[in-house]
Amino acid sequence: MLLRPAPPPQPTAATASAAPPPAAAPQTPPASRADSAAIGVLTVLTALLAARLLLLLAICGAFVLAVLAHSDASLVGLWVLIAYCCLTVIPMTALDLKRGVGAR
Fold first, then answer.
1. Which residue has the higher pLDDT, 96 or 23?
2. What pTM, to 2 d.p., does this model score?
């Protein structure tokens, strides 16, 4: 005859209700006016630098296309450069000059 181990004890109503309450999340202090002002300034600065970086990349791309069009001396390369400048560089430069953020 095999002996079976005793089953584990079942929780009673008294032990089930005695569970500790869950710990409250730590409170963070509210943001001060200086913090919100700094975040606003950084947001504007980020937008300004992102636009300037895109313009710089577009101008660098136009320069590379100009060098390639000049080294190839083909009419197709010249038309690609003209199309790129007319569709990318000129509109981006006009938008940057029109917006005038961070004006000189």
1. 96
2. 0.48
